[in-house]
Design a protein that fits this description.
mainly beta, 144 residues, globular
Length: 144
């Protein structure tokens, strides 16, 4: 499986600190399976989201169904990929790890998707495959 992390998230808040950009909202979500917290900037002009919605969220190293690495460029041959199964896909780079001290022992992983930011916080065992300076794909689709 090409996924480094996957869970169902529920949007708890949208634009908590006010709206900074017309076409971007920051959503704050909680995971259903792994008790993770997700802060994510989303282009709501192309993927509108509201509080209370649930979505499937996955992080992957590749979009190739066979798990093979991606080329250094976007493949426009229209061969099947994980992107076909999701509604919103971004490509970014893990740029920071933050380890919280005891008693929480949580880890936050920060990723930039061309300026749209993500912070995923939770148990380090669930995030150990996300390596600093690695490139990853974010995939989302609404559920229910």
């Amino acid at each position: 499986m090409a996924f480094l992390f996957e869970d169902i998230f529920v949007i708890k808040e949208k634009d908590r600190d006010g709206k900074k950009f017309d076409k971007v909202s920051r959503i704050i979500c909680t995971g259903e399976n792994y008790e993770m917290e997700l802060h994510l900037d989303v282009n709501i002009d192309i993927y509108p989201l509201e509080e209370g919605q649930k979505f499937n969220f996955a992080l992957a190293r590749t979009l190739n169904l066979d798990g093979s690495p991606m080329e250094d460029f976007y493949d426009q041959t229209e061969k099947p990929s994980y992107a076909d199964k999701y509604e919103y896909v971004m490509y970014g780079k893990v740029f920071k790890w933050i380890e919280e001290k005891a008693p929480s022992q949580k880890v936050s992983v920060l990723v930039s998707f061309g300026g749209l930011l993500m912070m995923l916080t939770g148990d380090p065992r669930n995030l150990q495959q996300l390596e600093l300076d690695s490139h990853i794909y974010l995939l989302m689709r609404l559920v229910g």
